[in-house]
Amino acid sequence: xxxxxxxxxxxxxLLPALICLxxxxxxxxxxxxxxxxxxxxxxGIQGSAWVGLDNFRYLFEREDSLQVIWNTLxxxxxxxxxxxxxxxxxxxxxxxxxxxxLQRTIQTMVYLPHFLSWVILGGILIEMLAVDxxxxxxxxxxxxxxxxxxxxxxxxxxxxxxxxxxKEFGYNTIVFLAAxxxxxxxxxxxxxxxxxxxxxxxxxxxxxSLLPITVVVGTLALGNILNAGFDQIxxxxxxxxxxxxxxxxxxxxxxxxxxxxxxxGTAIGLFKxxxxxxxxxxxxxxxxxxAGYRIF
Amino acid sequence: xxxxxxxxxxxxxxxxxxxxxxxxLCIIPLIHVLAISFSSKAAADAGLIxxxxxxxxxxxxxxxxxxxxxxxxxxxxxxxxxxxxxxxLAITFLAAYPLSKERxxxxxxxxxxxxxxxxxxxxxxxxxxxxxxxxxxxINSFWVLVxxxxxxxxxxxxxxxxxxxxxxxxxxxxxxxxAGHFKTLFRIYLPVSLPSIAxxxxxxxxxxxxxxxxxxxxxxxxxxxxxxxxxxxxxxQQDMSTMSMSPKEMELLSQTTVNAAQxxxxxxxxxxxxxxxxxxxxxxxxxxxxxx
Lengths: 296, 292
Prior knowledge:
Number of strands of chain B: 0
CATH superfamily of chain A: MetI-like
CATH class of the largest domain in chain B: Mainly Alpha
Strand order of the largest sheet of chain A: 1-2
Number of domains of chain B: 2
CATH architecture of chain A: Orthogonal Bundle
Mean pLDDT of chain B: 87
CATH topology of the largest domain in chain B: MetI-like fold
CATH architecture of the largest domain in chain B: Orthogonal Bundle
Helix content of chain A: over 70%
Shape of chain A: globular
Largest interface: A-B, 99 and 102 residues
CATH superfamily of the largest domain in chain B: MetI-like
Largest sheet of chain A: 2 strands, antiparallel
Oligomer: heterodimer
Number of helices of chain A: 14
Order of helices and strands of chain B: HHHHHHHHHHHHHH
Helix content of chain B: over 70%
Mean pLDDT of chain A: 90
Distance between the termini of chain A: 28 Å
Low-confidence stretches of chain A: none
Largest sheet of chain B: none
Distance between the termini of chain B: 30 Å
Low-confidence stretches of chain B: 288-292
Shape of chain B: globular
Number of helices of chain B: 14
CATH class of chain A: Mainly Alpha
Strand content of chain A: under 5%
């Protein structure tokens, strides 16, 4: 209690944030009991019937929900891989440019798409990727048949992954560039004296020095394995590509909010949250163990 | 020296070419949309526009600016951005101070930290969240755009990491002069942490300006939509529904140039603050990720 006399300002300062957390983070968590109910909005949580694990059984029996989980995994894993490889290579190549002004100009241009929302970019992409759009006109000039990027199940995932990498690779390069700036220049000087060419230097100095940060970024990305990017998919997809492009989050939105299957929607959401949480905890543990990374 | 050798010079030329090409690819879509917005409707419908306007025209901007629904949504977006950012700043600034203290000084710190971190790691999902918003009476209220996003643990961590970098001597001097924690926070910490407050303000502004899903989910009346939600319904949902229309119907509805103008106006504030964004975001992004 004598402690409280000293620390009361601290508790008071935290109060507004805690109220917000309680209302918008912890109160919703109590709602996960709906996952075990046949929830009816007019009966509320108290009145709705308990159904045990039926919603979860249903989740693994329904063909569309299994397809949706698979779509999510495929899209998310490919995004994680390419959002690691492309920035990694881009940072190394950008680091080779010796003119600072050119380097900075390129950086300014590639960071830009990250800050625009998927509504804006979706609007632009729908226009550009249409059958008679800008991209198909450019492709036609080299003799390629028009491609229905956003309406063809064979092309949709490709389009989603490429456009996501396009939006984020510049921004993801930042951490790699920061790591490259920290490499001790005497290492390169020593290699130079030993007669190593630039490729050898890249292979034996640059790449190994990027390894720790790559491990950190890669492991932390594991938590996103069920996050295929709601904002992007929602703004780019349409019923024609549900088969290959529908993901957990868009599926929850349609089944729960639009069709009113609240209990089922909560169950899928809970399934996703629990798996993500486990992966996040494991990945932070690994990132700490392998690379000494801590968020606090 | 390696960069004097002929193979490296050849590599360098190709490398610069490749990177410049990639950089150009990142801004081409914006240039294309800008070109469409300044072209005539006929040229846009005929698909003639590349990266430069055809039949220069301001018609699309005139139409957009005369659309009361569009102007109202801009106003709502500005309001949510200003209020939301102010609220986030206040809450984040206050919460980061006690969390930046050592356990020795503030024993309950670790309990509070866990409350924050756990909220980042786990969430109840979309449906329970929707029900809570409903129970709180926030459906169709402007405040649904401001309150739920007010605490962002990531921003709190950013702020507290900055606070930890402030020399202890400053605080000790204030303490000896008889200042309490509130006084220390507002008189000592506030002035020296303006750069990081600017970073958080920018993060929060971009978040609010770009947010569209909350408006779509919790607001039933399109009169209450912020700009991002307005654009989502007008441009993207519209486009989805035209896919099943006959070419004749599409012709009548064709709004390519107006859409382009609206998209560009929606992106404009981000482009305006972009020079600052780039500077501060790079700092924010590398803070806490690369440590010696």
